[in-house]
TrEMBL record:
<feature type="signal peptide">
    <location>
        <begin position="1"/>
        <end position="34"/>
    </location>
</feature>
<keyword id="KW-0732">Signal</keyword>
<protein>
    <recommendedName>
        <fullName>Peptidase inhibitor family I36</fullName>
    </recommendedName>
</protein>
<dbReference type="Pfam" id="PF03995">
    <property type="entry name" value="Inhibitor_I36"/>
</dbReference>
Amino acid sequence: MLLSAFARARVVAALLTAATTLVALVATAAPARAATIQDQVDAYMKAHPGGTQVGTADIAYSGGKFVVTVVRTGLTATAPDCPANWFCFYDGTNYGYPRGKLSDCGAQDLGTWGWRNRTASVHYRMSTGSVSFLNETGSTDTILFTASTSRRTIPDVTPHRDLADYVYRSC
């Protein structure tokens, strides 16, 4: 059945309205996402003072010795994404953010940066050595798990999830 000129005009008008709405939604989605990221960075810095925002979602502590990425800014699926020459630990399993990263050798107290009892997955991107995650148990500390050049990713550190207090990197 052929549409009358009036019916065709209504269909075209409806399609144009839908296209305009879609363009408006796409145009406003990016700024809304950016504002949400900034809100999350601001909230993190309020809860964990002493850092300096150094990127869209990055906060540096202790002059850049420790860096937290509050949210994943890319649209890629959750995967290990630690930059080269760092070792990273994630608040969520399967590399869920926030993500902390360090690179120094020796013992480091994760509590310095508010990260005790928060590690659920890890990614080791150093070219040598290893890093052990330890639980403070009084007079002695217990090694919970170790990431290294031969075991770079641990998507879920269960049964030791949220128990690490310190890290010790062997260089």
